[in-house]
Amino acid sequence: MLVVRQAVVGPFAENTWLVADSGTGDAVVIDPGGEATRVLGLAQPDFRIVRILATHGHVDHIFGAEELRRRTGAPFQIHAGDEPFVRALPGQAAGLGFGPARSPEVSAFLADGDAIRVGGHEARVIHTPGHSPGGVSLHFPADRLLFAGDTLFAGSVGRTDLPGGNATELLGSIRERLFPLGDDVRFFPGHGPGGTLGEERRRNPYVGDDAPRGRFP
Ligand SMILES: [Zn+2]
Ligand SMILES: [Zn+2]
What residue ranges define each of the domains in the chain, with the CATH number in brackets? Predict the structure, then answer.
């Protein structure tokens, strides 16, 4: 069975996810935004963190990556489009009140279509730019789960006014890459509660079926 555990971390209340196969004990951490000791605790007592993934490179999603990488020995991966954010982390973290940070060492870049194994389960990397150039979503097709980062929220969408953001790309990512995954897919966003893709397709005021095409946050 695939197990999902959550920790809300850091000054921006970012969702860090632990996704684990209860059969093999293998786990991945998605978006290690800080508070590494608490995140390590999510894996206790059953699971072993074998990989650390970031949906994108904003500080609130990668602040804890280097500490977690050091303490677990697990490789850290992110899309190459967001590498500039990784390099800029120490300066941005200080400016946003996160405190001192080191840029995480990237073991390998994620690319659209990559398969990520979590024990006996598999996730696919979907490039979903718009909130940031290298934003990705992680889809577990057989488990009907999606980790959407800051691309899609319950009743909202990610902001596009940060460096490299693009509103047209964001709406295209959601409508053309995420909604076709299926109405029954449960999604877990980078902030706040999740839901199902069907609920967002029907009711999301920015990107749902009835959203006025000109309206955007
Ligand atoms: Zn973000
Ligand atoms: Zn965020």
Answer: 2-203 (3.60.15.10)
